[in-house]
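INFO  loader      accepted 1 record
INFO  loader      residues=243
INFO  predictor   begin
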Amino acid sequence: MRPHHLVFTVSVLAWGFGCVGLRAEWAVGAYLGTAWTGTSSISLSQPALGTSLRLDPVSYRTEGFNTPPYYGYRLGYFLDRIGFEAEFIHSKALADTGRNTRVEGVIRGEPVNSVAALSNFIERFSISHGLNFLVFNAVVRHRFSPARAPLLNRATLLGRIGLGPTIPHPESTIGGVSREEYELGSLGLHFAAGAEIRIVRGVHALSEYKLTRTNQNVAVPNGHARTRLQSQHLTFGIAYHFE
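INFO  predictor   done
INFO  writer      dumping tokens
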């Protein structure tokens, strides 16, 4: 979905459901979890060193419960079945530099085309503090009727679609030189499906599957590295509804 399509959809939903006077409420949530990032490629450019490489495939490790941990939180406003949220996701992506990859291009002015461990060219490449998403979601939810589904009357199903900037913290070591800093990254897409179970009035346990995607071009020693990061997430936490 293109950004202007998402903005149009959200605007129409807000107008349509805002006109019918449905009961509104605020909600907050926080969660922990982990993410699995799919294999991709890294394009490394170090113009001052005469290096331009493509490394493919690159695998990523998941370390959601290692320090710094994976976490997220959000604030939303709901008009019965429709809601709008701001959500922060502190995800992580750490390249498995011990695995072999095909490398093609030029390194220090010399052509290269071989298969070798990623660590021969990039000792460390990670976005572990973190691959931060700040997304703005449109949310739909379904509450079960106590009369029709008495065993599910505490459950709510939710679906989310969102778009927003990323704030990555890339950490890299190349040729023995390290660099790490926060950056303003490219846009990120966010899709999610999950459920909440009411524990007591206002307090809900939550669990959710997420899919995020972003193309990053981050600073590394003497240059930049480009990669696509598509991740699947599983989360669990607590939500509170100001009913």
